[in-house]
Amino acid sequence: MYEHDVIVVGAGGAGLRAAIAAHEAGADTALVTKLHPVRSHTGAAEGGINAALQEGDDWELHAYDTMKGSDYLGDAPAVETLAQDSPEDTMRLEHWGMPFSREEDGTVSQRPFGGLSYPRTTFAGAETGHHLLHTMYEQVVKRGIQVYDEWYVMNLAVTDEDDPNDRTCHGVVAYDVQTGQIEGFKANSGVILATGGPGQAFDHTTNAVSCTGDGHAIAYRAGAPLEDMEFIQFHPTSLPSTGVLISEGVRGEGGILYNNEGERFMFEYGYANNSGELASRDVVARAELTEVAEGRGVNDEYVHLDMRHLGEERILDRLENILHLAEDFEGVDGLVEPMPVKPGQHYAMGGIDVDENGQTCINGLYAAGEAACVSVHGGNRLGGNALPELIVFGKRAGRHAAGEDLGEPQIQTGYGDDVEDETDADLPVQPGEAGLETAGGVAADGGVAADAEGILERTVERERERVDRLMDRNEGIQHAEIRQKLQKAMTDHVNVFRTEEGIKKALRVIRECREQYQDVYVDDPSRTFNTDLQQTYETRNLIDVAETIALGALVRNEFRGAHWRQENQERDDENWLKHTLISWNGGEPRIFYRPVILEGEEKTYEPKERSY
Amino acid sequence: MSTQQQEPESQEAPADPEMKGTQSPQERRLEEKEAGLDAQAEADAEAEGETVHIKVFRYDPEVEAKQEPRFDDFHVPFEKGMTVLDAVMYARDEFDSSLTFRHSCRQAVCGSDAFFVNGRQKLGCKTQLADLEQPIRIEPLPHQEVVKDLVVDMDHFYDQMHAVEPYFQDEDTPDPADLEEQRQSPENREKIKMSSRCIWCGACMSSCNIAAGDNEYLGPAAINKAYKFAMDDRESEEIKEHRLRILEQEHGVWRCQTQFSCTEVCPKDIPLTEHIQELKREAVKKNLKFW
């Protein structure tokens, strides 16, 4: 058994920042990650970091843009914290040596991004995430923070009180991918889940293959609710063949979208008469698919993104990486032809329900980054707001888990007094029940109070048994088949445009996947680097996460942000200024709601029509 | 289909067709192969459309049949734009789930999937199948210990990266709370730009003859990492001298024999050899200063 004060699971932007903060607060801190830190998906972020740095800009404008962009489903205390802390935290990165792009006077450059009233996106070429990730990993190396790389976290060790608010997380169980050894990691003061997004629930995604929602699923099964999972961001510019991301920076620098008739459709067809290509992402993604649906798509599939007019010098200076991506993955030279683009799954606005200190309703369990939902993005995340989320809330979670007092949170978590249960959801199938056999979940202590070590040991034992069971079986179904079926159903039915019938179809497929998963087995008999086993675990996690996405999408019968519903194409503030929460309660999802907080420090963000 | 070899447990598996239900797909494939059915399956696959023939290195210290390294053949249906990574993923998902390799972002930025493809270090995700001569040989990176199949032990690579003190160091760092960044000219930023693109894939180290013969040689990736800091004007002159001292050690920059193999294989086009030469010049300049 390994033991530390703070265990951070995942070593992307949020995890690294959390670990640095916890270490600086004096905690013995360790990172446990299924990849090596520099392989984390944060490295693929391209665009930049929103921070009100310049004269003429201020954090209040940033907060306002973010609330508007969220379609008024962001919680104001979280949004204001993001806007207030981002400038200092961004400058901290600069002092750690991050190679930001520069102006002639040597100051960091900023550029316009969609939905921003001021050009406040700080960037490093079109590879900001890569530099952010490496810069923070360098600081982890500098501080000598312990990293357990290529250790896959299988489950949390949590006590089994009836009410999740009374439960305590004592650590995690992980297995060493290289050797197959399964071990407990005891956390004396906190576990921080910074495991990134669940993009692999979809088959056309900009996300890495490693983005399987592991943190979401293990927190969910331990009793922490997942919040606003229906809000999935589809990025307007991903490459059609692979889903590889083409940064919003292209449009930020002046790139133009054309349909197959060479029309600049964002203006021609009135999708966004003021902002055009720089309307927020949900607006542009719907516009593109509408063009395709109405027969104005290129090859009936995508539209064109043109940056040729920016000139070679500017492209090479600010978007060089985009040229390489377009050439390597589509065979297109962005200097001489427009690039094919279409919407692709990109970011989960929802996630593990946490307050502005990163804490879940379970004692000692935290989440940060894309895995968490504070909520700063509400119904739609603005480009350039993910990286400040990582550093601002990663840092806060790290400090709080290490025992620093960050003040009383204003955001509630779990099942407080203010929640309202869903009572009339018309579900096509009884979700959730199947698959418990391999669910893991809350470490039972038989109702008898057990010490942290006992709980951890029992959880280790359960995971060892689970692995033995998966490896001992000689027949059944393999994870790849289930995963492909799940991904296809989600892309077919829970995509940019959603219908009640489609979402119900997806839920039925998810249910089938659950049932098939009862017969899943691992064909590779080796304990050495058994990716077959790891992916079998990941697939189970994807089933749970996909179900919460589809359930959230089904019950939210309104159109808000990225969540469009054919049956009701208008935002319904009277009934839906509230967060969707889904918890795993005794093996069955419970759906409930919590009101959104629109009251900020000094003002209330009144919902307005969102026009760009 | 694939030329699977027997797993240890399958040697005892009865060949009785009635027993098929208890066999793993690997065992079934093996049996089909023995019965000559794989030739038929292959013919079928080819009749349906174009396939690509890949030969993938296999080794697993734990599985008896894989302890002797070998190559397995896979015939993967081809679609325009398919990469080496797509092909091995297809082979794993459809033919043999024990086929093991690292991969994650599939967009050339996580650096996980550097393989030795037709005798050259390449990133699997950005190497088009159409550009390669068949059969395509896919092997783990040379000069690194093989953990299993295409997975190599990266610990030595990471150790070398860490040996150059790969983090920004400046004694006079002002408090960022006052929101003043350190100024850096666009020219200086441009100077370090290429060096900052390294994704730690290890292709350069694997291609370097010197690194292969001298385990202590820092190697192109680590030296490039040091270059990024040494050339950054935001660090002080004293720190730069400290960095040059690390680079000048016995197994540092002077080991480089400018063979350019690292530069040739770098998937991010970093002029690694040039960077090493420049650091040699800087080291000489520094030493002359003290004469």
From TrEMBL, chain A:
Broad EC category: oxidoreductase
Enzyme Commission identifier(s): 1.3.5.1
Membrane topology: Peripheral membrane protein
One CC-aspect GO term: membrane
Domain Fumarate reductase/succinate dehydrogenase flavoprotein-like C-terminal: 483-612
GO molecular function, one term: succinate dehydrogenase (quinone) activity
Superkingdom assignment: Archaea
Keyword Oxidoreductase (UniProt): yes
Pfam families: FAD_binding_2, Succ_DH_flav_C
PANTHER family: SUCCINATE DEHYDROGENASE 2 FLAVOPROTEIN SUBUNIT (PTHR11632), SUCCINATE DEHYDROGENASE [UBIQUINONE] FLAVOPROTEIN SUBUNIT, MITOCHONDRIAL (PTHR11632:SF51)
Segments forming domain FAD-dependent oxidoreductase 2 FAD-binding: 5-387
Stated name of the protein: succinate dehydrogenase
Stored InterPro entries: FAD-dep_OxRdtase_2_FAD-bd (IPR003953), FAD/NAD-bd_sf (IPR036188), FRD_SDH_FAD_BS (IPR003952), Fum_R/Succ_DH_flav-like_C_sf (IPR037099), Fum_Rdtase/Succ_DH_flav-like_C (IPR015939), SdhA/FrdA/AprA (IPR030664), Succ_DH/fumarate_Rdtase_cat_sf (IPR027477)
Cofactor dependence: FAD
TrEMBL record, chain B:
Keyword field: 2Fe-2S, 4Fe-4S, Iron, Iron-sulfur, Metal-binding, Oxidoreductase
Domain of life, per lineage: Archaea
Residue ranges of the region described as Disordered: 1-48, 168-190
Residue ranges, compositional bias (Acidic residues): 168-179
Cross-referenced InterPro entries: 2Fe-2S_ferredoxin-like_sf, 4Fe4S_Fe-S-bd, Beta-grasp_dom_sf, Helical_ferredxn, SDH/FRD_Iron-Sulfur, Succ_DH/fum_Rdtase_Fe-S, Succ_DH/fum_Rdtase_N
Domain (Succinate dehydogenase/fumarate reductase N-terminal): residue spans on this chain: 53-158
Requisite cofactors: [2Fe-2S] cluster; [3Fe-4S] cluster; [4Fe-4S] cluster
Keyword Iron: yes
Comp. bias intervals (Basic and acidic residues): 26-36, 180-190
Pfam families in the record: Fer2_3, Fer4_8
GO molecular function: 2 iron, 2 sulfur cluster binding; 4 iron, 4 sulfur cluster binding; electron transfer activity; metal ion binding; oxidoreductase activity
A GO biological-process term: respiratory electron transport chain
The keyword Metal-binding is annotated on this UniProt entry: yes
Residues in 4Fe-4S ferredoxin-type domain copies: 195-270
Similarity comment text for this entry: Belongs to the succinate dehydrogenase/fumarate reductase iron-sulfur protein family.
Protein name: Succinate dehydrogenase
